[in-house]
Amino acid sequence: MLLTTPPPRRIAPNYILAYILLALGLSLGPLSQAQAGGDKPPADCEWLMGNSLTRTMIGLNRAGFTIDATHDRITIEHKTRYPHAWARMLDRDLMMMGLYVKGPRGGRVAGFDGHLIFKLFLDYFGSRVQAVLGNWEGDSDNLAQFNGLSQRLPLEEAARKTWTGRQAVLHGYTHVFILDTKGSPGAFERVAVEFQKPR
Fold it and tell me: Which residues contact 13 (CB under 8 A, 6 or more apart)?
């Protein structure tokens, strides 16, 4: 799923389906603005709606999110700026991501599911992703979870049981490596951890 030419920096809602075709490396002929913006896709690409990446991206767009993507990064942002998420490839096989699920008033926004976003990022970059990097600091939920767990578990196991750790393991990134820490068990200020697929 490689983009030979980066898409526009901002993808208008009525061109989201055309963008998805490009992101998936498909060419089914030109789509008119009416076709690309309609509730129902053109008849010759209805089969594409069965793809989970496609369904998730269209669902986010309809819920008021803008998707900004290139070959090496993807950003999803709500019209209110929160929640938002991003992911980028740091080198040939390492993906780093940030996920902020709370809305502008602290609640959840319909259509924004962290589990689906995590999977969307992995689907978008495809087989290039051999490792997921976590860099937790500040008010990170992962850091708070890690601090609680690190008081009674080895650091690798504590990382594995955080939200990101559970998602990574679910998708096959089962090898955990603590790259760097600042602080001590229960009071870490920063943690860098890598979840790798078995080689």
Answer: 37, 61
Q: Taking the chain, what is the end-to-end CA distance rounded to the nearest angstrom?
A: 21
Q: How many CB atoms lie within 10 A of CB 102?
A: 13
Cα dihedral 90→3→67→28 (10° resolution):
-160
Amino acid at 135: N
Q: How far apart are CA 132 and CA 151, in angstroms?
A: 24
Task: Give the number of other CB atoms < 10 A from CB of residue 153.
Answer: 15
Helix (H) or strand (E) holding 178: strand 175-182
Total count of residues recorded for the chain: 199
Look at strands 190-196 and 84-89 and give their pairing. Answer: unpaired
Give residue 154's pLDDT.
97
What's the pTM? 0.72
Return the SS3 of 169. Answer: helix
37's tokens:
């913006």
CB 56 within 8 A of CB 119: yes
Would you state the pLDDT for residue 171? 96
pLDDT at 36: 38
* pLDDT beneath 50, residues of the chain: 1-18, 21-50
Determine contact, residues 182/193, Cβ cutoff 8 Å: no
